[in-house]
Amino acid sequence: xxxxxxxxxxxxxxxxxxxxxxxxxxxxxxxxxxxxxxxxxxxxxxxxxxxxxxxxxxxxxxxxxxxxxxxxxxxxxxxxxxxxxxxxxxxxxxxxxxxxxxxxxxxxxxxxxxxxxxxxxxxxxxxxxxxxxxxxxxxxxxxxxxxxxxxxxxxxxxxxxxxxxxxxxxxxxxxxxxxxxxxxxxxxxxxxxxxxxxxxxxxxxxxxxxxxxxxxxxxxxxxxxxxxxxxxxxxxxxxxxxxxxxxxxxxxxxxxxxxxxxxxxxxxxxxxxxxxxxxxxxxxxxxxxxxxxxxxxxxxxxxxxxxxxxxxxxxxxxxxxxxxxxxxxxxxxxxxxxxxxxxxxxxxxxxxxxxxxxxxxxxxxxxxxxxxxxxxxxxxxxxxxxxxxxxxxxxxxxxxxxxxxxxxxxxxxxxxxxxxxxxxxxxxxxxxxxxxxxxxxxxxxxxxxxxxxxxxxxxxxxxxxxxxxxxxxxxxxxxxxxxxxxxxxxxxxxxxxxxxxxxxxxxxxxx
Length: 511
Fold this sequence. Notes:
The chain is of the alpha/beta class. It folds into two domains: 17-134 and 151-243, 2-enoyl-CoA Hydratase, Chain A, domain 1 (Alpha-Beta Complex); 264-425 and 461-496, Alpha-Beta Complex (2-enoyl-CoA Hydratase, Chain A, domain 1), CATH 3.90.226.10. Helix content is 36%, strand content 17%. The protein contains 19 helices and 15 strands. The protein has helices at 4-18, 23-32, 37-44, 101-117, 137-141, 170-177, 194-201, 207-211, 213-220, 230-243, 283-289, 334-349, 367-371, 374-387, 404-407, 430-438, 446-459, 462-467, 480-490, and strands at 51-53, 73-80, 83-90, 121-128, 159-168, 180-184, 188-189, 225-227, 296-298, 306-313, 316-323, 354-360, 392-400, 416-419, 473-474. The strands form two sheets. Strands 1, 2, 3, 4, 5, 6, 7 and 8 form an eight-stranded mixed sheet that branches. Strands 9-10-11-12-13-14-15 form a seven-stranded mixed sheet, with helices on both faces. Strand 3, helix 4 and strand 4 (121-128) form a beta-alpha-beta unit. It is elongated and about 95 Å long. The mean pLDDT is 91.
């Protein structure tokens, strides 16, 4: 056969590259119950759709070439649920997938193609950080910072990150730039390892304490959800992408409406307590009006006084921002502000209409909030909201008090404002208002206190707002699904084929 020697060499080199860090290291991962870099791609991508880029790449250092198949990163292009994506999967069996000259060129190529050609980018993170000695000394400076736009996010297409092991350096940075981050329990996201951090801070610290799933889902808010296995993390990435368009210049995909999606709204009157002081979980109300089994909540453990979730309504993607009285009575704190702004940016960048469900007593005040720049976080929210160009619909369920009325889409901060008959538009709770306005406590004169509280409550009723045309509709709660479907049809972005102006596309990903 002509060229048989060259073809044989090609096959030998292919097999050597596919062997990654060798049988012993691959077996060790299998025994640990975690997938290797190629198995992760195989689980994520449609069968036989992965087209690898840089299979034969190795370290730029001659003495390291035989030890660095693929230079520690498996990258390329695949299809996920029939749509093209770019994939960067870190191969921890090769020098801990440490970042070096050649593999950074591979990453840049896939990232550039995804941005230029308009499809999502997926990072499967597991890295030990920068590779030494490649990054050390003066010569190392010639590797770092050669791409001035390396960490620029203009949200041309959605990015998703799965944190599947130790994630320092490269994997940490790109997770913080991503629109969606899922973490396998047991993984770590941090600037440096706990061993390095112990030396820096002078005390012992565990990897979990430093950057584990509990910290990042509940305290930092950098991770959207935590799961138990690699497979669950990859499935979460697939599900997230199913709500997203391939790029910013198209509308999100449409899906068939599951049978029975209309049933939940008929029970809506049973979900909201009659007593205004009684709490409830707003997730039940969201489940009642969206398409069946379509809720995909983000940052559920962070800023819990508000729920931010993707869902589908009549087959199309929507974003829901809902106050949740079961946590802090729904009062909004700094974490809730940061959570909502992040979600507004996501929805506006990828042409997803936003629905507000309002039951908010205001912002949580106190020393801690002020020390964490609460006024700045509150105004960041309104600033971002004023730049949102996708349709915004606000439904006031119960309380909508104070400045939070505007943050939750009141007034002209939404395209349409509707109210349930239970809506209460006071500045504060009537009982608090009596004390502020009249200096009267209930114990001082119960009859007089009740009279004054009733007067304040009457002034705050939905009918006063409707009379001023500050709400366009007062609806039966059981009609919420039908109202939202029709209203979003009216406000569909026909002139631009469902595409917004993306004024928030370069808003910082973390702040």
